[in-house]
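In keeping with the milestone schedule agreed at the kick-off meeting, the structural modelling team has produced records for the first pair of proteins. Each record is given below as a sequence line and a structure-token line. The laboratory manager (R.T.) confirmed that both were archived under the project's standard naming scheme.
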Amino acid sequence: VIASTSVNLAELLRQTGRPQEALSVANRAVEFAEEIYTNQVEPVDANTTLVPAHGCRAHALQALGRYSDAVSDWDRIVAVARNPVRPAHFVSRAYCMVQAKQFHNAAAEAMRLASESQVHPDNLYNVACILCLSAPAMPDTTDASNNDQPTQQQCVETALTLLEQLNQSKYFDDAARAAHVRVDSDLTVLHDEPRFRQLFPATPDAQDVP
């Protein structure tokens, strides 16, 4: 109860523009949750204890610009989280890696997620964004010593394939999504790609949708 109350308070503080106070409360939430999980007498669901606590601390750290520290909380989350929420947390960690300028790790994570079969369409869109944001930092050619490291072109091609798959599943039949994808700054590296232009022809009334 103490842990969940602290999580709710930390989220409220962060959402009302008080991230430093949110972090202090989140630290307590993590402490309580870890103690409950470590000393459990009966089985404890990590999805309702550790995951929310570390998640609220990760969000507070990200609000403070401490992205590398936040990645550590996401590491803990993906280590203990169970399906069906686990894939979404991998996506959140990869986005945080981008913010921390850990582009190689983010791209490798995103490539793995792109091949998963149980990733929600919203998260697949985010995976495409992560690949695009990471692409400029990737090597031009494959590194024989690191087969898990994608190249710039592999990131771009995979992002385009994901968007095509989403389009085929009618994800962009939603007007807001269709407008947003055309101007999403996360996808800037795709804007001059013929496949992207064919998929999303420019429209005179395209506008950014938050």
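The second protein of the pair:
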Amino acid sequence: MSISSVFNFSNDFESLSLKDIKKSYLSKNRDSLFYLQNTTKGSFAQILSNLESEKPIAVITPDFKSAEKLYNNLSYFCTDYSQVTLFEDYEYGPYDEIVEDSTARFNRFKTLFKLTHHSSLNPLNSLKFAVIAAPSLCRITLPVNMFLKGCLNVEKEITSRDEMLESLVKGGYSLSPTVTDIGTYAVRGSLIDLFVPEREFPVRIDFLGNSVETIYEFDPATQRRFKEIDSFYIHT
């Protein structure tokens, strides 16, 4: 994955302007690395949201609390909430290595997916900012090639039912009577409902025999489908 890293270079953020940040950011031939205090202020998010880059910009914060606040501010100022992603914090409780928060794990997968599949030409994944807390950045995660190998592109008339169910089991998805939460799936005859983390709505896959016939997004509250799509990804 290829990203630009942005901190900043001044101890006094209030003296900086968008012009100052842009000048320093664009003047380097390599990825820019800055340090900046007071990054949780809305004014910083507003200035940052106006930066343009061909690659996603990683904004590193001291802790997850400040990362959440900056993520919320950036989401407000960016034109599309999907342009910003937050790398979920790791739990540090006494049972962390035994029982993991599945929601946090799937949210981390979502950020990794957006970073590895970023495309400025794809409106569904035109990622602009990845907000990451420094402690989370220090944790070991999957190598890029291993993560990409585990991403299954589910497509009409190509992906088999057995292949998809195998990917769901490997990815730690939970079998559920109905799908309302991220990381769950339900099987009813030829239908499989599934909620993958990078999509806003869950998907309903209808199989004809062992191959995908149709894929629809559906509303988890009403369970009614409303939009047909051609493909989506499962990351395991």
